[in-house]
Design goal:
The complex is a heterotrimer of chains A (446), B (273) and C (189). Chain B is mostly helical. Chain B has twelve helices and two strands. Chain B is globular. Chain C has one domain. Classes of the chains: A alpha/beta (446), B mainly alpha (273), C alpha+beta (189). Chain C: Keywords: Signal.
Chain lengths: 446, 273, 189
């Protein structure tokens, strides 16, 4: 056995030697010390040209002020060590594709900075100490399949980094299929209309998607994990937030799957919110429609503060420590599934004929003093809440809870493995044996 | 030392011949079984509805059980005249108290271990998805509860003259610490100025073993963020690996202090004859 | 139980002493990990736009924009208010709300787009306005009659005028490019 292993190692060693010695195998790349300045290359290009960069490491920063396309034929890296943005685009219709950008400037500088319309950024890999992509007064941009990540410094302190994609006063942009990690706000948008944010994957950032004054937009099929908050939707009208999943946002004391502040006339549909501190937090939100969302294993399912005239229908609340924590809210709540509630369906229409009352006692207590949050789910507290459920006004009850859950069956995926099960059983056997032998030795034997 | 072990051994023997111990063993086993069956559909891990309600139910049952068994054992020594007999021997009060504590602890731990053993084995049969870490944490949680409430039970037993008195005090201590705690605190703390509420609440929480242990487990299950901005530093400490040791130290201090009180009560009783 | 009482009493005693010590209201440093705006619930960056107020009973609220604090005071009234603080735009020191000088312009970017910033004296406010070429200077008294408009669509008109040609864009670059970067622009992101 030992002999075979030694022989294998030897063969492997030989193979390595061959690879190294073989000339011109494409493994040979220019050494990182030869940095090719990129600006002259751009300056030589004509309006409308496509520059195909050969593999290598290039030096920034560069400014693009004519309509050109820059693509790569292999591994192209642009390094920028200045406090300016690695690439600044000031001309409409520019295309960047397949570049690696290493932005070593921090603060307000970015990997790519846009001040132009109809720009396309595709398959870029941006590693930045500052921002990822900045959009200023830039419309109809397509930002697709890029990867943006912050440096590993300040782990757990995303608030001290830059934003992944930072959009300001820009309209009709599409942000699709990007992977963003370790930034402050992964996608930050302020003042814009008709934005499409679809299919992005975001982790370890402060807010995954942060909308401020964004109207008529679509946020769908995004995935967020381990951020402070998944979607921070603030002062927004006529926007659809659908089919997103936000999981495990429970570290920060204000973490939540989704926060809706001053959101009006919007649709929040078919999202999965799992394992967050609060699944959906709403404040000052009205006339929204929340349906088909699955709220699973959150500490608090939904929290509604001063929110009125929203419709909550056909959502599933499963295995949350507390389903709701509401205050000063009156909404139309009907036909949701609550696993903590045992309904009675006499009419056999799939909906319970007794209503599900929600409790606002705890929320009222902690709003007087945050120190009382220590009582969250204290056994006495649940007792006390029951007493106060009696005086419930309309709007804090589900009139016709759904009897059986028909959505989100596939949503829950636990991490307890077969190995876990074996260990639990083994431990169980050991405990039982220990207990029985203690009884025999200590108690029964003379 | 050998005196203490003698007392402990005697206590274990008496404990396992006491029908109370077995009735609680059966009760706790049935109870853990029920928990398992209710949760057979769910993944038992992290801080969720499942683990939250398990916590509450264990908080209802275990302290009561511990208070009864612990305090009765002490009062029966007085009632049966054993203590009068023992105190004529050259047996140190410390050996007596510590021996009692260790013996009772073994008996109660056996009950807990039996219950959890059954739960573990059956979870394999029922196919419940029980995360090992969570299972372990609940075991530790229960043992800690027993340990701390046993020291309270010893105080109760020392102060009571007979079994009935012990029963009454036990139930009121249990009610105060587990059920009435938040109600009583909410109503009394509201008379304090705003800035005093949090520190007072923290001190009082340190004095209530039920809350102390519950919060430790909630934080260890990953639910610390629900306690809000006022406690995030504490949560950070407890989540770290050193947090476990820190908590163990707090529990030790707790136990030693209450055992010192018990010692003092018995020593006083002895000197007064 | 009896044994606890002296300890509790002692702790309370210490509290009484420490509580009596602070008659003056002082600003509390911003903790970026746990401080959120009491109005809009956003995490507060420890920057010049942060504000805070302390109630008479010692309860402290923090905000990420002067406008948010204004909104809170408007909704909750000022009867229980102990002291409210804003920050100097240049050196981030906390200043009492009523002693500060304010500058408003819709083009100034603040956390919640209220566009009002604060200065410790009138001179630095005047300097800011002179440097930027825009902005209305207001005293705390004049600020009371401010309408607190959030500037959600400030560039909309300009956008429409400019059209989409590259010429139009060039003009914009000049204003919003690196050199002309509005100072307020660098603030909240």
């Amino acid at each position: 056995m030992l002999l075979i292993r030694v022989r294998l190692v030897f063969v492997f060693f030989l193979l390595n030697l061959i690879c190294i010695w073989k000339p011109g195998t494409g493994l040979a790349e220019p050494t990182p010390t030869t940095l090719i300045p990129l600006q002259p290359v751009i300056d030589r290009a004509q309006e409308g040209d496509t520059i195909l960069l050969s593999p290598g490491t290039y030096l920034g920063p560069v400014t693009i002020d004519k309509k050109i396309s820059i693509q790569s034929s292999g591994s192209v890296t642009l390094v920028n060590n200045t406090q300016e943005s690695a690439i600044s685009i000031h001309a409409n219709g520019v295309l960047l594709q397949g570049l690696n950008i290493e932005q070593n400037g921090d603060g307000e500088s970015a990997g790519v900075e846009l001040h132009a319309n109809d720009v396309q950024l595709k398959e870029l890999v941006i590693h930045t100490k500052g921002y990822g992509i900045l959009l200023r007064d830039s419309n109809r941009t397509l930002i697709q399949n890029n990867r943006i990540s912050g440096f590993e410094q300040n782990i757990g302190k995303p608030e001290q980094k830059g934003n992944g994609i930072d959009l300001y006063n820009s309209h009709d942009n599409q942000i699709l299929g990007n992977k963003i990690t370790s930034m402050r706000d992964a996608i930050y948008m302020e003042k814009g209309r008709n934005e499409t944010i679809k299919g992005n994957q975001i982790s370890y950032s402060r807010y995954a998607i942060h909308c401020m004054y964004i109207d008529d937009s679509l946020v769908s099929h995004n995935e967020g994990e381990h951020n402070f908050t998944g979607a921070m939707v603030m002062v927004v009208r006529n926007t659809t937030v659908s089919d997103n999943s936000f999981r495990k946002q429970n570290e920060n004391v204000y973490a939540q799957g989704m926060l809706l502040y001053d959101v009006q006339k919007s649709v929040i549909k078919s999202n999965v919110l799992e394992g967050n501190r609060v699944g959906i937090y709403m404040e000052n939100a009205s006339d929204n429609q929340l349906s088909d969302n699955v709220l699973l294993q959150n500490f608090v399912g939904i929290q509604m503060i001063q929110s009125e005239q929203n419709l909550l229908q056909h959502n599933a609340f499963v295995s949350n420590v507390v389903d709701t924590a509401n205050k000063d809210s009156s909404n139309q709540i009907t036909g949701n599934y609550w696993d903590s509630f045992q309904g009675i369906d006499i009419t056999n229409d799939g909906f319970s004929d007794i209503s599900y009352s929600m409790n606002s006692f705890y929320q009222n207590v902690i709003s007087s003093n945050a120190a009382y949050q220590l009582f969250f789910q204290s056994p006495g507290m649940t007792f006390l809440s029951e007493i106060f459920t009696g005086d419930q006004k309309q709007g804090t009850r589900d009139n016709a809870p759904m009897m059986k859950m028909d959505i989100g069956r596939e949503a829950g995926h636990g991490h307890a493995t077969a190995n876990d099960n074996r260990k639990v059983v083994t431990m169980g056997v050991m405990l039982l044996l220990a207990a029985i032998s203690t009884i025999i030795i200590g108690g029964i034997r003379k | 030392m050998s005196d203490m072990m003698q007392v402990a051994k005697r206590e274990i023997k008496m404990g396992f011949r006491n029908p109370w111990a077995y009735s609680f063993l059966i009760l706790f086993s049935i109870f853990s079984l029920c928990l398992l069956i209710i949760n057979s559909q769910n993944y038992v891990q992290g801080y969720s509805a499942v683990t939250g309600s398990m916590l509450s139910l264990i908080l209802y049952l275990l302290p009561l059980m511990t208070l009864f068994i612990g305090s009765f054992s002490l009062t029966s020594e007085k009632e049966d005249g054993n203590w009068q007999l023992l105190s004529t021997y050259p047996l140190g009060t410390l050996s007596f108290v510590a021996g009692k504590y260790i013996g009772l602890m073994v008996v109660l731990m056996t009950v807990v271990m039996f219950g959890y053993g059954l739960m573990g084995v059956l979870s394999g049969i029922l196919g419940t998805h029980f995360q090992f870490q969570t299972f372990g944490l609940f075991l530790v949680f229960s043992c800690l509860l027993v340990m701390l409430f046993l020291s309270v039970a010893m105080i109760v037993g020392s102060l009571s003259k007979n079994r009935w008195q012990a029963l009454t005090i036990s139930v009121s201590v249990w009610f105060f610490a587990v059920i009435g705690w938040s109600t009583i605190l909410l109503s009394t703390l509201s008379f304090l100025p705003y800035l005093w509420i949090k520190p007072t609440l923290v001190i009082l929480t340190l004095l209530n073993p039920a809350e102390l242990v519950r919060l430790f487990v909630v934080i260890r299950l990953g639910g610390g963020s629900i306690l809000g901005p006022e406690y995030y530093e504490w949560v950070g400490w407890i989540q770290r690996s050193s947090g476990g040791w820190m908590f163990a130290a707090v529990c030790m201090i707790w136990m030693l202090c209450s055992l010192a009180i018990v010692y003092w009560i018995w020593e006083r009783g002895r000197s007064r004859g | 139980m009896k044994k606890w009482m002296p300890a509790v009493m002692l702790a309370l005693g210490v509290l009484v002493v420490s509580a009596c010590g602070e008659k003056k209201y002082e600003a509390i440093p911003i903790n970026e990990t746990v401080d959120i705006c009491a109005v809009c619930k956003m995490q507060i960056k420890d920057d010049v736009y942060a504000t805070q107020l302390t109630m008479i009973d010692g309860k402290n609220y923090k905000f990420d924009d002067i406008g948010c604090m204004e909104k809170w005071e408007h909704e909750h009234g000022k009867e229980q208010l102990g002291m409210d603080f804003v920050r100097d735009y240049n050196d981030k020191t906390w200043i009492e709300h009523d002693k500060a000088t304010y500058v408003y312009d819709p083009s100034i970017r603040t956390s919640m787009a209220y566009g009002v910033i604060s200065f410790k004296d009138k001179k630095s406010a005047e300097k800011f306005v002179a440097d930027q070429g825009v902005g209305t200077i207001m005293s705390a008294k004049e600020l009371e009659s401010h309408d607190w408009q959030q500037n959600k669509e400030m560039m909309k008109m300009m956008m429409d005028e400019k059209g989409h040609g590259s010429e139009g864009m060039k003009g914009m670059d000049g204003k919003d490019g690196k050199d002309g970067h509005h100072k307020g622009d660098a603030g909240h992101k």
